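# nightly structure sweep
# worker-07 picked up a monomer target from the shared queue
# config: single-sequence mode, recycle default, output format = structure tokens
# input follows
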Amino acid sequence: MRAPYDVAVIGNAIVDVLARVEDPLLAELGVEKGIMTLVDAERSEAIYRRLPPAVEVSGGSGANTAAGIASLGGKAGFIGKVKDDQLGAVFRHDLTALGVHFPTSAGVEAAPTARCMIMVTPDAQRTMQTYLGACIELTPDDVDEELIGGAEVTYLEGYLWDPPGAKQAFLKAAELAHQAGRKVALSLSDPFCVERHRDSFMTLIQGHVDLVFANEAELTALYRTDLDQALSAVRGHVELAAVTRGASGSVVATGERTVSVPAEPVERLVDTTGAGDLYAAGFLYAYTHGRDAATCARIGSICAAEIISHMGPRPETNLARLVESTLSAV
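# output follows
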């Protein structure tokens, strides 16, 4: 009998503020292009005031993955902290309207709901300045035991691996998942996260994780070597590692086997925000439905191609229908 949920996600509950900018503005603001940087409330407000007209949409890496799984027809749950404020209500509505189960209670005395300033340059690269707010107040008490025990895979968002309470929440969820005979997946999220948490990431991976999701820069930063050596190393620590390589597609390492899958064609590259999140959504949906590694990667690539063809980190096309039509066209 199938589990009630395909994937349970633990991650940051964030509202994204997306704006198209030119490179000189990044230089003026003193931000490093193409990466995510954590900022405080004052810095977040200062950047917001300098942005051109922007679009506000619910985001957060793990939440985007949960949204993608729902669009594919899967059952997803999300654990993440918001405040009982306007942005928190928006985030909850946007996620639950997609059919994602979101049992985490909102904080009353918490910091404001998190927001991420995403500046998209003409080359479609995104530079993120993130104020975590209520996100970092997640604790083990917020881990819904029924959701974790009832999900085929629990997916941990690496961006959240920082505050002590969240670390303990991850470890509690991993223990609950394994006690129920389920799998645990970890997204490395960003080279910034890897550099900050290399040693503790390695401990987490070796002791608690079955599946790793990363891009090439993240995996090579984790192992401090080239991609081939990093793939060789990671397969000794987990059952499966899925590594995205942008226009070069992705590779999946399982045991002694490495599968390479090309990227899906994209008519117009608009915004790379959420590409890895939706790749993970497609891969995990396929994985929890018994598909082989190559097919999992192909479906992940189809979902990633959809997300980078428009602004914003959530699908604008029904992914279930898109995947079906794309695969049947082969």
